[in-house]
Amino acid sequence: MTDRARLADVTPPIALGPLDGRYRAAVAPLVDHLSEAALNRERVHVEVEWLIHLTTNAVVPGAPTLSAAEQAYLRDVVATFGADEVAELAEIERVTVHDVKAVEYFLKRRLEAAPGVLGETVLPAVSELVHFACTSEDVNNLSYALMVRGAVNDVWLPAATALVDDVAAMAREHADQPMLALTHGQPATPTTLGKELAVQAHRLRRQLARVSSDEYLGKLNGATGTYGAHVVAVPGADWPAVSRAFVEHLGLTWNPLTTQIESHDWQAELYADVARFNRVLHNLATDVWTYISRGVFIQIPVAGATGSSTMPHKVNPIRFENAEANLELSCALLDTLAATLVTSRLQRDLTDSTTQRNIGPAFGHSMLAIDNVRRGLRALSVDAPLLARELDENWEVLGEPVQSAMRAASVAGVTGMENPYERLKELTRGRRLTADDMRGFIAGLGLPADVAARLEELTPASYTGLAATLVGYLDD
């Protein structure tokens, strides 16, 4: 083994995990929000906005008011934060051995450099207002809230919504396509393919509504949540009001009561909702896989693709299997995040620090699954003749409407309608009936003519109730 090249030394570096390697294209948009570089950019953003907030609102006596040009200069530090800045910040952190302190020093460098860009400016003089009265967690909790909100609203929700729209479109397309239902894997009351897809689309939409309404909380109140340093430094300020205004300026919900850390309960709530969406999507993936296995869905072959290394006829449902596995990985991470982040010993421990660095992979595996399901659905066609054959081979499923009609007739005073369930059970249980078998039984019941005619016209394919109409509820 010693004569092998060291892959760890290859340039550019080889990804350890599949999300940054094999599956990079499907999850790349999350890098702008949930990567380490994105975390540092949001930290710079929070520090810049805090500095502007303190000066614009005259919170600290004697602090100058920044001009529009000076504010624009500071915000441009965030807007232009890219590869060079990532490298510079990493260099500073190698000295500080503290990520948030490195951000503070990084921003102070920009203040010192401001005269070279703006000419005469007060920015170097406000250097000590950078990170003023803050603990690292004041910056971190706000940064993570902004990161996760951006990832959800700008990346995950649009992808998930597009998937659900795809499923809903398929439901409408096949609203009238009758199919044999299987309960416990056995033939049951027929339905339509569109109605079954609509059920899943409706479930997924409910979870999207929950995710869309979730709150993103933030706090800025010092080392143990008491505003201790704030009050000593500037006793005349209404610090809870200043904090609330700042947090809300960032578009977040202010949390008034915390320890050193924001309690992360909102994260647990959000991740539970995303995990629930994942689990419903997992159910859709396994159902579609089963429909493919039964032949209900035919997979459209991709030119040049190989389904098996040895069996050339195979077109495997790999998109849905890949989705299942990634949804399980995502849920495992989301469940761990939700369980871990709500607990912190006394006023602070660091279990949340390393845990939150795995938010990206949690959403990444979900995004990968969403991408796979969408691609898989686009490669399906429906075998309508197979569905018709299945229905025609299972006339015994009409035992339910026949015995129900007998019950109604009995209530209406028709004689000879005794024990309808038991009579249909004797006729159908464990047996395959033909159309003639069922119609002969109906003819011998003595039902009113209109009821008998209605039942004699009924077929397994027409016994779908309001299934096609129910698909319309997707548009409500």
TrEMBL record:
GO biological process terms held by the UniProt record: IMP biosynthetic process
Residue stretches in coiled coil: none
Keyword Lyase: yes
Record-level Gene Ontology MF annotations: N6-(1,2-dicarboxyethyl)AMP AMP-lyase (fumarate-forming) activity
Lyase among keywords: yes
Domain Fumarate lyase N-terminal intervals: 21-323
Sorted UniProt keywords: Lyase, Purine biosynthesis
Domain (Adenylosuccinate lyase PurB C-terminal): residue spans on this chain: 344-464
Pfam families reported in the protein's UniProt record: ASL_C, Lyase_1
Gene3D superfamilies, sorted: Fumarase/aspartase (C-terminal domain), Fumarase/aspartase (Central domain), Fumarase/aspartase (N-terminal domain)
InterPro entries named in the record: Fumarase/histidase_N, Fumarate_lyase_CS, Fumarate_lyase_fam, Fumarate_lyase_N, L-Aspartase-like, PurB_bact, PurB_C
Pathway noted in the entry: Purine metabolism; IMP biosynthesis via de novo pathway; 5-amino-1-(5-phospho-D-ribosyl)imidazole-4-carboxamide from 5-amino-1-(5-phospho-D-ribosyl)imidazole-4-carboxylate: step 2/2; Purine metabolism; AMP biosynthesis via de novo pathway; AMP from IMP: step 2/2
PROSITE patterns reported in the protein's UniProt record: FUMARATE_LYASES (PS00163)
Protein role: Catalyzes two reactions in de novo purine nucleotide biosynthesis. Catalyzes the breakdown of 5-aminoimidazole- (N-succinylocarboxamide) ribotide (SAICAR or 2-[5-amino-1-(5-phospho-beta-D-ribosyl)imidazole-4-carboxamido]succinate) to 5-aminoimidazole-4-carboxamide ribotide (AICAR or 5-amino-1-(5-phospho-beta-D-ribosyl)imidazole-4-carboxamide) and fumarate, and of adenylosuccinate (ADS or N(6)-(1,2-dicarboxyethyl)-AMP) to adenosine monophosphate (AMP) and fumarate.
NCBIfam families: PRK09285.1
This protein's name: Adenylosuccinate lyase
